Amino acid sequence: MLKLLLLIALIGGGLWWFARGGRAGSGRDGDASSGRPPANGTGDAGQNKAGENMVRCEYCNTHVPHSAAVFAGKHGFCCEEHRAAAGY
Ligand SMILES: [Zn+2]
After folding, report:
1. Region of residue 61 (left: phi > 0; alpha: psi -120 to 50; beta: else)
2. Residue 31: what are its φ and ψ, rounded to 5°?
3. What pLDDT score was predicted for residue 24?
4. 31-72: per-residue pLDDT in tens?
5. Which pTM was predicted?
6. Which residues, chain by chain, have CB under 5 Å from ion ligand 1?
7. Ligand 1 centroid vs 13 CA: distance in angstroms?
8. How many whole angstroms from 39 Cα to the centroid of ligand 1?
9. Cβ partners under 8 Å of residue 47, min gap 6
10. What is the mean pLDDT of the chain?
11. Residues 6 or more apart from 36 whose CB is under 8 A from it?
12. CA of 59 to the centre of ligand 1 (A)
């Protein structure tokens, strides 16, 4: 019975701490990075944060950032395995 009460107290305290900590944490982050506006709500689909071009893997059709892509001539791939699997 004491264990059950302890468990309930722990869960309740945890939820309270989580709810408080979440709000305090986001407020502190906003103050610390004063140069950057919050990134929430900006729907830039298809472009990552650096505005980098996306490359489509010719093997699995996954889009990967240009810097992370593997190239064989003008053919782009998401990884070395797919470049080899495609025969390049
Ligand atoms: Zn791929």
Report:
1. left
2. -70, -40
3. 52
4. 554 555 555 544 445 555 667 899 999 999 999 999 999 999
5. 0.44
6. 57, 59-60, 62, 78, 82
7. 46
8. 29
9. 54
10. 77
11. none
12. 5
pLDDT for 14 beyond 80: no
- Structure-block tokens of residue 35: 């140069």
With b for 16 or more beta-carbon neighbours within 10 A and e for fewer, the 59-84 pattern comes to: beeeebeeeebbeeeebbbbbeebbe
CA 72 – ligand 1 centroid, Å? 13
The pLDDT tens digits for 69-84 are 999 999 999 999 999 9
For residue 75, the CA-to-ligand 1 centroid distance in Å is 11
